[in-house]
Amino acid sequence: MDREEYKRTSLENWQTMAAGWERMRPEVERVMRPVSERMVQALAPQPGDTLLELAAGPGDTGFLAVTLIGDGRLVSSDFSSEMVEVARRRSAELELANVEHRVIDAEEIDLEDDSVDGVLCRFGYMLMPDPAAALAETHRVLRRDGRLALGVWSTGARNPWISVAGRILLDLGLTPPPEPDTPGMFVLADEERLRGLLQGAGFVVETVEDVPVLFEYPDVDAYLRRSVDTGGMFARAWNDATADQRATITARIVDGFEPFAVDGGYELPGVAVVAGARA
User: Fold this and answer.
1) What's the pLDDT at 180?
2) Which domains, and CATH codes, for the chain?
3) I want to staple 217 with a disulfide (CB 3.0 to 4.6 A). Which of 15, 19, 221, 223 is the partner?
């Protein structure tokens, strides 16, 4: 799949998935809060700053930061217009007056050079077809000594909350094997590669840290419902599967989750990587 075809397909998927993400927003926000908080700490926003959040989704990371900038401004953006509307509704609920919502392609940011003081991007760069171009654009719009804080996922081995099911789908032939260096959950898990991309875009890397998260499910049915509701690879494979295949998937997930069983369900760990850099 070439770059433009990937972007078209990805946009169609996110437009469709936005409704599920809005339904799941409280749960996603709770689980991801340690990542968002560490990103905001790395960004260190100051009163009066202009901030940009790329691939904002429901917008919760930027909304944490906006409380620190006083009369500053947050541009909350996503390349999916449906996701932008999810964030717009959430900011209205929070009564945030200094947030602008925009549709922005992170690889072609529609902002002037040197126009923002800080950029946030949680789990976005890894899903872009050209993260190097997106980081170069990020550097372009940042003022001198402006800061970037980003989050990506560590390796599949450290994220069984998604990799257990992913391996099952792959083993059953319901998803294709990932191609090297193509967009995906773990494509920026390697710290050396992440640092290289940041430095190649002109950034000075200041911190790269692991941030643990924990996904809790009362049972496998709850895991399946949430995974299908938020869309993505699992939802597409599940929706295309036959009844027999779904039964097999469910049984194998039950087995795969056994090491993570606790009283009252399952606790599935994950590890994100948060990087802070200066332009």
Assistant:
1) 78
2) 3-156+182-214+266-278 (3.40.50.150)
3) 223
